[in-house]
Specification:
By secondary structure, this protein is of the alpha+beta class. The protein is built from eight helices and 20 strands.
């Protein structure tokens, strides 16, 4: 599927700005962004429920914009399930085939097949009101898949469910994708959902696609400050470039030294060359930072170090998040994973003096700042 330069405005409000994407056949592709970023509008344009002001949507090279939704070989699973309350589970799933006037034996066989696929074969005679939220969602997915579409469109399908059930259904949805092998386009504002199941993600904001990449690329190499802040947690600083030297063992990378207020000189490796005096945005993820009450013994030149005081420890069972304040008042977030049981409780507590360290390879420069600082 190719989305070519799609734009859409409602009155004077621009929802999509010249959006272009190429989605591979059989891919689990997520549109990720905050509310109002344009992701649902883009999904509705693909489905045929909205018409763009400009652009094209190609399925196998053919523009489907002239066709109504039922002629596009794309079915949608809505956030509110959209089930028929007066029909049984069996009849809800059978509905698309009944509309096409398929033979009774074919309808029965295929409905049973798709109910097995979503693990609801024992619930065929129930009404939607007798089902849990997760079961209703599976009925909606089975009904969408029974038409054998080329593309399944999912508009925040898990948002109405509680956190534990969302996690369970997310795994089931990923397994279902592997079984049926068609293209899934998944709209969500939940970063963890997108990172968990996607082959690739398009991060959107205010009608623009800011970055397209694998979950690893999006998380480890964010394209700009918005992506860095929106995907997970991070520490973000402005820094002035002091020097930039090509690494002798890797001719495609540079070692850049930054002056960052409150942190001092920070080293970071990058594939981009920067010039002394430029101001950049630097990010380091909380889980990349090591925290200790003892000064690190390493003397490696690529290790950054600073000191601070634990301003606030937040214990979450499997990890503790530390808010560490440096002597100059800069606050850093640090994550420490709990891998083993400790009889003595947490070894780092409130008001402890601590040492922080991280490798130059673990930081990342997310962009060059202009003179206005944006």
């Amino acid at each position: 599927m190719v989305i070519g330069k799609v734009s859409k405005a409602f009155g004077s409000f621009s929802v999509l700005n010249d959006v272009s994407l190429e989605i591979k056949k059989g891919e689990f592709f997520s549109l990720l962004g905050p509310s109002g970023c344009g992701k649902t509008t883009l999904l509705r344009i693909i489905a045929g429920f909205e018409t763009p002001d400009e652009g094209s949507v190609l399925f196998d090279g053919a523009d489907v914009l002239p066709f109504p939704p039922n002629k596009r070989q794309a079915n949608t699973v809505f956030q509110n399930y959209a089930l028929f309350p007066h029909l049984t589970v069996f009849e809800n799933v059978a509905f698309p085939l009944r509309i096409k006037k398929r033979p009774r034996h074919e309808v029965n066989e295929r409905v049973e097949e798709y109910l097995r696929l979503v693990q609801l074969e024992a619930h065929g005679e129930k009404k939607p009101s007798q089902l849990s939220g997760g079961q209703k969602q599976r009925v909606a997915i089975a009904r969408a898949l029974i038409n054998e579409p080329k593309v399944l469109l999912l508009d925040e399908p898990l948002s109405a469910l509680d956190a534990k059930l969302r996690g369970k259904l997310l795994i089931e949805l990923d397994q279902l994708h592997d079984k049926v092998g068609i293209t899934f386009i998944y709209v969500t504002h939940d970063q963890q959902e997108a990172l968990s199941v996607s082959d690739r993600i398009a991060v959107m904001n205010t009608g623009d696609v800011l970055q397209v990449g694998t979950p690893h690329e999006i998380y480890e190499s964010p394209a700009d400050e918005f992506v860095a802040k929106f995907i997970g947690e991070t520490n973000l600083f402005d820094g002035k470039v002091l020097s930039s030297e090509r690494l002798p063992k890797n001719e495609t990378e540079y070692m850049v030294e930054l002056a960052i207020d409150g942190l001092g000189t920070v080293k970071v490796t990058t594939v981009d060359e920067f010039s002394p005096g430029q101001t950049v945005s630097f990010t380091i993820r909380p889980e990349k930072i090591l925290i200790s009450t003892e000064k690190p013994a390493t003397r490696r030149a690529d290790i950054n170090q600073c000191q601070g005081v634990v301003d606030e420890p937040v214990y979450s069972g499997f990890q503790t998040k530390f808010y560490v304040k440096t002597a100059s008042g800069v606050l850093l977030r640090v994550m420490k994973q709990h891998a083993v049981y400790s009889d003595e409780g947490p070894d780092i507590i409130w008001k402890d003096n601590v040492f922080l360290s991280w490798s130059a390879n673990d930081g990342y420069i997310v962009g060059l700042k202009n003179e206005a600082g944006s």
